[in-house]
Structures are given as structure tokens and as C-alpha cells.
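Input record (Table S2, row 475):
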Amino acid sequence: MPELPTGLRRVKLPRLPELSEPEVVRHFTALADRTFGVDTGFYPLGSCTMKHNPRTNERVVNLPGFRDLHPLQEEDGAQGALELMWRLQEILAEVAGLDAVSLQPAAGSQGELTGLMLMRAYFADRGESERDTIFVADTAHGTNPASVTMAGYSLQKVGTDARGNLDVESLREQVNERTAGLMLTNPSTLGLFDESIEEVAAIFHDAGALLYYDGANLNAVCGISRPGDMGFDIVHYNLHKTFSQPHGGGGPGGGPVAVREMLEPFLPVPVVAREGERFGFDFDRPKTIGKVRGYYGPFGVFVRSYAFIRTYGPRLKEMSEAAVLNANYLLSRLRESYDLPFDRLCMHEFVLSARNLKREHGVSALDVAKRLMDYGFHPPTIYFPLIVPEALMIEPTESEPKERLDAFADAMLAIAREAAENKEVVKNAPQHRPVRRLDEVKAAKRAILKYAFDEHPDLSGEPGAAEAIEAQKGA
Ligand SMILES: Cc1ncc(COP(=O)(O)O)c(C=O)c1O
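Output record (pyridoxal-5'-phosphate complex):
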């Protein structure tokens, strides 16, 4: 190794923290103990699909041929990895009911942007660049309008009707020759399957526009219904949700896109192609939108998703059936104590409202969420979708047994009772966690990362701790 030039060398020794190994181990173990994850408890974070990550996936992704692979390995030495990617493309195309897949995008949101760039390229190629508007539901995840704007399109919001479907009449009035497409997740973020989807697809297709499927909620429909059959032309998957992946805190994720045949020439390069028994990268796509990510995509995510899907095999639909059953069971237990803004059978998740507790006792969705932490549960998503006031968006996933669902329902019902009988305990929650209510923006943006010696505050003497500990044992 060549020596660093003298001028670049450090003159003073760096000030490094000095702690003994046991103290370092204790520090990080204490932090890990405080971390709540799907491996430590129930995590019904609506729209995020926090399902169990089977350990088989980890065994497979740690096979040396996958784990030690360098992205610049020549194709002949990476045939197994390429075959896995090709097979995953084939399976994803089948799940979506579409023709071709690119594995490149690294998250659902990047899949969205990629999909809209594909639309752009497609319309430009047809000489229809005047199409400048994308319709987005008022229940949409924030990434949808953000992607529309980033892709250079104008955004047109579509309302939701009284049954929780898209407002078809307003679409009929507004969709025209300037429309590029619709972006929709189905089931929606309300956990409801759009009953007019075929009519909606016809409105857009008749106007020469395209339909984009935000696959964040694909966990509800895998092997049961396919976005392509519903009329969608472009789909993104959230591999980290539907097909399991330890995720949260920003990654890692995978957001492949699938398209109908007429959009295939525009897919990002490279696409994994098969020629006889050989697999390789196909860069020869003159109409491609180019690359959307370094190298070839998040490979570890591909391996885990492939392992997950192959474990189910042809029984993949049982995953979605169990997810839908679990959600409807929970809904049936909670509907008497919380408001239900759209009273229908739900899909893999459902949205309640705490507005009854707010109106009657001044207890908000935020209070309920914080109190759930005292009972040992991760809170559901709250205040989303935006059209439901005091929203509590609950997604149990297929991983949970009835006992766990019952324990969560018991806690939610207990909190509704507490709101009526002892609201201060809810309004001041959490009381038995290492920290109370934080300024969540500051906590994320200006985290305090200093080492502190006493990492183990003794909470056992705190009022209410005994009940919370008992509740946790039952959880
Ligand atoms: C409905 C919906 N769409 C899109 C996204 C964006 O996906 P990602 O977080 O993978 O970028 C999410 C993420 O939670 C979502 O819930």
C-alpha cells in the first residue's frame, strides 16, 4: 500500500471513545432490548405489512454463492444469481398478470417514479406528449402525488364515494385527451377493494390513458386477483412488504415494476434475459428509460423474496386469504368500541376512527396509539388515510395466531373503556416505556446518540407498571 503523503497525515491522535468491551456490549444490547420489532411483538402498522420474516430466507441469502457475490462478477460466474433474478421476474409477472418485469427500483416509491417515467416514454414514442395529467385518489399514500410531481406531471385528485370506492362520476367528467393515467392502490389504503375497478379502467383506457397499480397492498390479493386482469398496465411490488424482508427505518426494500407488453421496450436496463440454458443482462434496448439504480437492484431482497415465494409455492393465495381473515376477525372484535367510517368487509387491513372517543372523552387516536405501547403493542398507523379523522389503520398480516389478535383486541377494548373511566391514564401514555411523549420530528432529525452510563432505568415502582407488565405477559 502506498503511504499517504505527509501533508495529509494526521498530526494529533484521534479522540476515540474508550470503553471496555463488556460496557460496549451492554450498551448495544440495552439499545437492542429497547427496539420494538416484529420479532418482539405484534406490529399492526397499517399499509406497512410488517409480517414475520421466515428464517429460511436468511439461510438462503447467506449461501456463500449469493452472499459473497460482487456486482461486477462476470455473468458466467454468476449464473445461479442471474437465474434466480430471471425466475423472480417470471413469478412477479404471473402474480401481476402482466408481461414483463424490471427488478431495479429499490423501493415502492422508486417503482412509482419508474412507472411514471415509463408512461412518459410510452406517450412520447406515440407522439402524445400533450398528455400531462395523472389522477390520484384522495386516499393515496403521500409518495403517489410526490412521484407524479417528480415525474413532471400535473396532479388531479379524485374523491372517494360513500362506500369507499373511487368517485366514478367525477372521473367520467374529468378524464380526457390530456390524461396520461391513474395511480391507484387496490385494495385502497382504507383496506377496501374498489368495486368499480373495471368501470374505472374502461374510462381511462377509452381515453387512451394508462393505469398504474401501487402494489403496497398486494398482500390482500396474491393468487386471488391480478392487477393486470383488473385493467392495470403498470404495477410496482413492495417486495419488502408482500414477500417479507426485515424492513423499517428506511430499508432495505425492493420495488420491481411489471408492465404490459406495449411498455416493455421502455423498461430500465439491464433486464435479465434467458437464452436457452444461459442467463445474462440485456442492455440492448434502444427505447429504454435508462438505469434507475446502481448495478442491478437490491439482490439480497430478491433472494429473500424468492425464497419466501417458493416456500408457499402454488399455495401463495393462502397467504392473502389468512391476511384478509385476520383483518376481518380483528375488525369484528373492535367495531363496537371504535367508529367504522366505511362499514364493509375489509381486505388485509381496515381503518377505524377514534373520533367517538375524541367527541365523548377528548381522547385522540394519538392517545390510543401511545397507550397501546403500555400494553406492549406497536401502535397502528394513525391519521392516515387523510380523509378519515382520527384514523387508526390496522394491518395484522397473516403471520399472527388468534391468541395474539385477541390480546391486541383486548388491549384496544380496554383502552376504549379507560377513555371513558380514567382518561388521564390514556392521555398521559406511555407511562412504562423508557421515554414518554417525544417531539417526534426532533427525535428523528436531532437524535441524541451519546453514550450514557445508566441505560437501565428501573420502572417497576412506577404507578400502573404492574398492570402494564401483566398486560405485556399476556401479549
Ligand atoms: C400505499 C403505499 N404506497 C406506496 C408506498 C411507498 O413504498 P416504499 O415505502 O417502499 O417506498 C407505501 C409505503 O408505505 C404505501 O403504504
